[in-house]
Amino acid sequence: MNIAITGLLVFFFLIPGLIFRKFYFTEEFSKEYFKQSYFELFFEAFPIASVLYFLWLLLAFLLGHNIDIILLGKLLMGQCQAVEVFQHIQNQSANIFWFHFSLYIFSGFSGYGFKLMVRSKKWDRKCKIFRFKNKWHYLVKGEIYDFPRIISPLRKNIAKDIEAVYVDALVSTDEGTIIYEGVIFDYELSNNGSLEYILLTEVERRYLKDDNYNSLPYKIPGNVLFISNSEIINLNFTYWYFEQWNNGKVQPKMIG
Amino acid sequence: MKRDITKRHTTFFNSDPGLLSERARIIFSNPIDAKKVAKSIRANLRGAKGNKEDLTFRLTKETEKRLLEAATQKPWWEKFIGKTKP
Asked: CB-based contact (8 Å) between A251 and chain B?
């Protein structure tokens, strides 16, 4: 019984950390939320939960609410009677509810807010410790151009200059190896973080054996072409920006 | 006030800009211009083997108008708090 209560308390203690993680790994980075093992999950959620609980306990003390830390400690150590505990919970039920409810809300907002700050300040690009595991995101969006080991005084452009990403996808088919090229429209990851598919628009197709452009490529009609990762052999990304001339003409230029 | 629609700015409220810049999105939303862009990209990519006339292209009047509207669009908060100070 004592072990059960202790285990339950530890689980409740981790909830703010889990909520923080859930809202931190959102949108393009949501696959990273799912961990391989409970140990990794515990290892990540515990320090976050500790910090959040500390902040919230401090706030509660400042607002004049007394938290019986000694009773909590006794509960964790299994050194108090169940009657005493439940009597206390009944007397303080409203406070306990609002304390945890407000903490969970704050955990969600702080997780999401911290993610927005990391992304807007580009800490994930500048510093590996903040970098998300979605390597495809950085590659497809061209954000690798902001990585410290890519930055060079000779490099004229950075990731925000990229206006469109052009892809050559080498695809294996029964009829031979085909190159599909087009502007990348969207992509999706699988649960294990690998690429699941890419969507291209304005696509042309040619066989690899005709890769000398002597034969005309075939323009694929349609708005969006879906290419599954299972068929892709490799991908060649080129990043483009548009230069507008004074005479109104526009020229795409490769990012340098 | 002109907005820069040629860059993919990462801000706090837009922490994950799309794959295309706003200018590219407007251009690609017009099928005629989308074809021109793709053709031009291929010509620039292929260098000597590409068609030199396709290296540049001209946007349709409709797209130019939309680009100008997007560049001069007021910030969203102006609808609520009025004009911003110069």
From this structure: yes
Domain annotation covers residue B8:
no
Closest partner residue to B10 (CB to CB) among A27, A119, A252 is A119
Strands A225-228 and A195-207: antiparallel
DSSP reduced 3-state for A69? helix
Contacts of B68 in chain A (CB under 8 A): none
CB atoms within 10 A of CB A43: 11
Q: Radius of gyration (Cα) for chain A, nearest Å?
A: 27
Of B45, B50, B59, the CB nearest to A250: B59
- Domain map (residue ranges) of chain A: 2-121, 143-254
Query: Which among A166, A248, A158, A245 is positioned nearest to B41, based on CA atoms?
Result: A166
Is B13 inside any structural domain?
no
- Among residues B79, B76, B55, B72, the alpha carbon closest in space to that of B4 is found at B72
Q: Classify the complex by whether its ipTM is higher than 0.90, answering yes or no.
A: no
- Chain A residues within 8 A of B21 when measuring between CB atoms: 162-164, 241
CATH number of A143-254: 2.30.30.100
**DSSP state letter for A133:** S
Per residue in A73-126, pLDDT tens? 777 676 666 677 777 778 888 888 899 999 999 999 999 999 999 999 989 988
